[in-house]
Amino acid sequence: MINLLYPNNNKKIYKKNINYANRGMKLESLIDEANEYYKENDIAIIYKKPTPITICKVNYESDKKILTKGFFKNKSTLDYVGLYKGYYIDFDAKSTTNKTAFPLNNIHHHQIKHIENIIKHGGISFLIIEMNNEIYLLKGMDLIVYIKNNNRKSIPFNYIKEKGFNIKLKYSPTLDYIKIIKNYFIGGHYEKEKNN
Amino acid sequence: MINLLYPNNNKKIYKKNINYANRGMKLESLIDEANEYYKENDIAIIYKKPTPITICKVNYESDKKILTKGFFKNKSTLDYVGLYKGYYIDFDAKSTTNKTAFPLNNIHHHQIKHIENIIKHGGISFLIIEMNNEIYLLKGMDLIVYIKNNNRKSIPFNYIKEKGFNIKLKYSPTLDYIKIIKNYFIGGHYEKEKNN
């Protein structure tokens, strides 16, 4: 079941950017659904990292510990982490309404550094990108290579189409991204097939 | 540097259980120090998972997003996650003042299930236990085996001494637990040497 409501079950106050926000939430819901499917079917254990919060004040109400003041911290890692067939998986989901290029300003510098570190230590890292009503999985290495060789503040859609793996939606799980990992990251043929 | 203060820099209000609480925080500080050392020296990437919080109310003060009401959720996973030489690492730190047995009531049922899942999917999971002024690394499998075969609500210290790996403190990093992973979990000899 896809839940597009906020944690306190209040509906989002609709603003101008509703389309963008909803897209991001829709993508997250699909990833959550896939992760639940993987867990239930014993395929992989992948979960969303909690939002890092600096806890400032805590009250007790009838023995229940309630946080009454906290600050949101910038994430230095990515949103999802997990384990698939012994492989360490670490990735993020990004959504853009931009049709020609994926803006890089929503990936922090320390997140790029984190992706580099993951790859260096033998883990698998990537982005799941929603763009032009299609979903692409872009390998961390292809992201790093682009950033190191270009001064642009965005990645052209053509680069994502060329290097990324287009994930076709299906019934269950709707967004079966592990299939890409299985087919193209592990098991001998790490390189994208259509490029060979 | 070991910081034994709470996040808002207030000193802890001293209660009867101060000794226990301080012990737990001291152990966490040593693990944090080791993780920082591993990161700086490019040995491993291991970090503490943020505390999961259900966000209920958020206010904005001069454009800064401040959390004003939140509930602490029970952890269904363990405290630390990371990557070492391509291996997925997932563990927790536990401290007890009990001298004869390690009480199992501070490990939740879903945490046990999580440890089982990690092992099943090819990851490395364990507990770092502080007990009787010594530090032991107990493999997740040895924890599971004990729980499955015993109805006791605690693990006798003798079992931990026999199955666990005693980590001797040294200068830098003080608590070098990755050495145990390197020597006894990967690289061929997964079994504890002294038992062979």
- Estimate what percentage of residues of chain A fall within beta strands: 25-35%
Secondary-structure-based class of chain A equals alpha+beta
Percent of residues of chain A in helical segments?
A: 25-40%
Q: Can you give the mean pLDDT of chain A?
A: 84
The residue ranges of chain A in which pLDDT falls below 50 over 5 or more consecutive positions are 1-18, 188-196
Shape field of chain A = globular
How many domain units of chain A?
1
Here the CATH topology of chain A equals: Trna Endonuclease, Chain: A, domain 1
Q: Which architecture of chain A does the CATH hierarchy give at level 2?
A: 3-Layer(aba) Sandwich
Q: Ends of chain A: how far apart?
A: 39 Å
Strands of the largest sheet of chain A, in order across it? 1-4-5-7-8-10
> How many DSSP helices of chain A?
5
Kindly report the oligomeric state of this protein. homodimer
- The topology string of helices and strands of chain A comes to HEEEEEEHEEHEHEH
